[in-house]
Amino acid sequence: TMAEELAGRRGRAPEPGPGPGSPVGRVGFEGSPGGSRRVFSPAGEFREFSRRQLRDMERLFRQYDAGKDGFIDLMELKLMMEKLGAPQTHLGLKNMIKEVDEDLDSKLSFREFLLIFRKAAAGELQEDSGLHALARLSEIDVSTEGVKGAKNFFEAKVQAIHDASRFEEEIKAEQEEKKKQAEELKQRKAAFKELQSTFKQ
C-alpha cells in the first residue's frame, strides 16, 4: 500500500557521504554555518578540473585525514605540511585554514581543500603563503581549461559543451582501460590453466 511504501522509504538509510575509495562524481554532504547540510558534488562544482585531477586531490585529502572524519584539522594539516617538506608555525597553519574556511569551523572539509587548488590554478595565492606551498608541493597538476577565457554567454556555452564531452571521453577511457585489464587477466588465467594441464600430463 501507499502508506507501507512511504514507511519503507522513510526507513531507508540515508545516502552515505564520500567513503574510502568513493568516486569523485559521487555526491557528498558538507556542513554549512547554519548547521544545515547541503549536497556537494565535486565534479559538478569544480568543473575546471578533470576527473583525474579531482581524484588525485581526493586521494591526497584522504591520505592526511588521519581521523577519517571527513576533515583535515590543524594537527593533521601540521603533519601534512611537515611531510611535504614545508613545516609551518602554529599561526601559519591557522592562517592557511582561515583563507579557505568558508564555514568558520577551523578545519578543512574536502570542498574547502579543493578551493586551495582552485585558488592556485587562478593564481590567487601569494607565493610565500602556506597554501601556495601546499598546492605546489602536492604534485597535483592544477592546469585548467576553465571557462575563465569565455568572453560571452555563447562562448561559455560552447566551453561547457566541450567540458561535458571531455568528461565523457575520460569516463570512456577509464572504461576501456578496465576492459583491457579484465581481458589481460582472463588471458593470464587461461595461460596458467594451460600450463597446469601441461604439468598434469
From TrEMBL:
Query: Coiled coil: which residue ranges?
Result: 157-195
Q: Where is the EF-hand domain?
A: 52-87, 88-123
Q: Which UniProt keywords apply?
A: Calcium, Coiled coil, Metal-binding, Repeat
Q: Which GO terms describe its molecular function?
A: calcium ion binding
For region Disordered, the annotated ranges are 1-41
Q: In its keyword annotation, does this UniProt entry include Calcium?
A: yes
Keyword Repeat part of the UniProt annotation: yes
Name the InterPro entries on file. AIF-1_EF_pair, EF-hand-dom_pair, EF_hand_dom, EFHD1/2
Protein name (Swiss-Prot/TrEMBL): EFHD2 protein
Report the source organism: Halcyon senegalensis
> What's the name of its gene?
Efhd2
